[in-house]
Amino acid sequence: MLVRRLLARLLDWLLVLVVAWPLAHEPVLVVLGAAAYDALLLRWNTLGKALTGLRVVGPASGLSLRRVLARTLITTALPGGGVVLVLTGLGWREPALMAGLGWQQPWVVIGERVGTGSAGWLTPLLLVGGLVLLVLSAVESLDLRGTRTWHDRKAGTAVIRVASHR
């Protein structure tokens, strides 16, 4: 079940990346797109889960908005935020989003390295923070007990295999 779940997540992230990156060129916007995709389709099924024969279910009362948002925050925003912080720590910038917010920091052009001037301590801090978020995300995803990982238990959901109708 764990391999199916990881494959479903990978397929969903790849789908969002293929669709969102050409439109936005911003890691933050790609993560927001992935979170929106996950939250909007969680009550039905994401493409990755459908292709791997999985479905997220809640209690008999169904998946409430609170459950959907809690699960999306832990499963999508946490690792996505980690990736954004790691990319920023490695020197990748988000020019359009930061400029649009009026935030002119050293990372104005994608691909330029962060200077080691007065904000030189910021780079390792972002990198370590991102790695911590990614490790936390991996550890909580691997805490599988039956059909529920840690984030399923916290959100009150479970992932089940859907019987194929052949």
TrEMBL record:
Pfam families: RDD (PF06271). The chain crosses the membrane at residues 7-24, 30-47, 68-92, 121-139. Its main location: membrane. The keyword Membrane applies. The keyword Transmembrane helix applies. Keywords: Membrane, Transmembrane, Transmembrane helix. It is found in: Membrane. It is a multi-pass membrane protein. InterPro entries: RDD. It comes from the Bacteria. Residues 41-155 form the RDD domain. This is RDD domain-containing protein. It comes from Lentzea atacamensis.
